[in-house]
Amino acid sequence: SAILRIRDFVRSLVDLGRVESQTRDLVSPYYILVRASELVEVSCKKKGIEFVRHAGPNLPGIIVRWQEIEQVLINCVVNAINAISEMESQRQSPKIEIGIDLITSNKKDWVVFSIEDNGPGMNDTVLDKAFLPLFTTRRDKQGTGLGLSISKKIINDHDGEILIKSKFGVGTKIEIYLPAQLDKND
User: Fold this and answer.
1) For the whole model, what pTM was predicted?
2) In angstroms, rounded to a whole number, what is the distance separating the alpha carbons of residues 52 and 80?
3) What three-state secondary structure class fits 124?
4) How far apart are CA 160 and CA 137, in angstroms?
5) Rounded mean pLDDT, 108-121
6) Which end of the chain is more exposed for a tag (fewer CB within 10 A), N or C?
7) CA 59, CA 180: separation in Å to the nearest integer?
8) What secondary structure letter does DSSP report for 141?
């Protein structure tokens, strides 16, 4: 098991430094949301965490390598599952909500994926370091500290942005902004 863990760790380090050249496709963000949700829903049920999915109406497509965006969503939800599962005193109604909306900000249209939990939240020190490669609060639980740094790289490579809002003792919300592909030919 240690060898497998080392192999996965090395692969993650290689992924962090890789320059992608795969083609991107115009994809429905809802398709990515559904696929990612299907892969994490079972884990939530097993751990007694309510899992809610929502999507705004008439969402435009996004031009992405959809498997990478799916990977980012899964990573964020798995982080939320781990945070909730490892709380010292469990929430009465643990919950993770994942969704997508269309937002206009700074005269640009964005498809925004959000992952919100009512887990332990992060203090300012952890929040400041969350995207640093190899930073983890789960070293004793086989955390590598690469998930969020790889996620940030993927989103940056897609001309997007990933933000974390967290309140210690209340929960965490991650927002992933990706350029929307709106047809401007009126």
Assistant:
1) 0.83
2) 13
3) helix
4) 26
5) 95
6) C
7) 9
8) G
Torsion of CA 88, 94, 100, 103, to 10 degrees: -70
79 CB burial (10 A radius; 0-12, 13-18, 19+): buried
The helix/strand/coil state of 140 is: helix
What amino acid is encoded at 71 in this protein? Q
The position carrying tokens 């249209």 is 109
Beta strand pairing call for 171-179 and 108-117: antiparallel
Hunting for tokens 């400041």 — which residue is that? 128
Alpha helices (H) along the chain = 2-17, 29-46, 66-85, 124-129, 147-157
The percentage of the chain sitting over the pLDDT mark of 90, rounded to a whole number, equals 55
- Find, among 174, 177, 183, the residue nearest to 74 by Cα: 174
Closest CA to 115 of 93, 95, 97: 97
| Cα separations in angstroms, 108 against 14, 21, 66, 102, 178 | 33, 25, 21, 10, 10
- Residues 6 or more apart whose CB falls under 8 angstroms from that of 69 comprise 32, 62, 113, 154, 158, 176, 178
DSSP state of 49: -
Distance CA 36, CA 67 (A): 9
Closest to 131 in 3D by CA, of 171, 71, 174: 174
